[in-house]
Design goal:
Elements lengths: L2 H12 L19 H6 L5 E7 L4 E10 L2 H12 L5 H16 L5 E4 L4 H7 L3 H13 L7 E3 L11 H8 L3 E3 L1 H4 L3 E9 L3 H12 L4 E9 L6
Parallel strand pairs: 2-7, 3-6, 6-7
Antiparallel strand pairs: 1-2, 4-5
Helix pairs in contact: 4-6
Bound molecules: zinc ion (ZN).
Length: 222
């Protein structure tokens, strides 16, 4: 056991960790409680996301359905500062990528507007993406920028979501060009945001794009 792991274990003895999903105190060195491990069924699979108008299918890895304690955990992570949850999400995403997808060149995240980042203090998808990159031993790069602020997707009906994200993101071509990119998001709802980001990365010269998200609201994409 490395010195870092021993120190972490001692720290967890003093400040016991809590289950990422339900918040119960758990044994040092663990991330989720036994009850959650037994009752939560991960999706842990890749689904195909069709990019409308391009004929391209993008593989998209999903860890969990967006429901119950998973939903609660992501809400605490996203809106209530439980940033440490990103360690667990990233660990699981890295395992999923290693088991299914060809190794990408780099990892990037769906960006949020600078105003929203300033208000929240962090971009939740970037935190997960940076940890995933670290776990996979890959570089993290900012391959996308949000160039226009738009209305929050989850507040809009499905029919308006595609229009709401159109032209909102811009690829950073010097980072994306010729690269096999792993694009990370926290939650997939209709898939409109991820589709738009993939389209923009490919327009900016990315060789391939694979997506992965912690949770998916339903199975409909784009
Ligand atoms: Zn639990």
């Amino acid at each position: 056991m490395s010195l870092k792991k021993i120190l972490l274990f001692c720290l967890e003895l003093l400040f016991p960790p809590r289950c990422v999903f339900c918040g119960r105190v758990i044994a040092p060195g663990t991330k989720i409680c036994r009850a959650c491990a037994e009752t939560i069924t991960p999706v842990n699979t890749f689904r195909c996301m069709n990019l409308p108008g391009t004929g391209q299918n993008i593989p998209c890895g999903i860890l969990y359905p967006y429901e119950g304690p998973i939903r609660d955990s992501i809400i605490r992570f996203k809106f209530y500062g439980e940033k440490e949850n990103s360690d667990f999400y990233a660990e699981q995403l890295a395992k999923l990528i290693q088991s299914h997808a060809p190794v990408p060149d780099l990892v990037t995240a769906v960006p949020i507007s600078s105003q929203r980042k300033k208000k929240r203090g962090y971009n939740q998808s970037e935190l997960i993406a940076r940890k995933t990159a670290e776990t996979l031993g890959l570089p993290y790069a900012e391959c996308l920028k949000k160039i226009h602020d738009n209305r929050e997707q989850h507040l809009l009906p499905r029919s308006e979501r595609i229009r709401n994200v159109r032209g909102v993101y811009r690829a950073v071509e010097e980072e994306a060009k010729g690269k096999k990119i792993l694009l990370i998001d926290d939650i997939i709802t209709t898939g409109s945001t991820l589709c738009e980001c993939c389209r923009e990365l490919l327009r900016g010269g990315a060789k391939t794009v694979v997506c992965a998200a912690v949770a998916q609201v339903d199975k409909t994409t784009c």
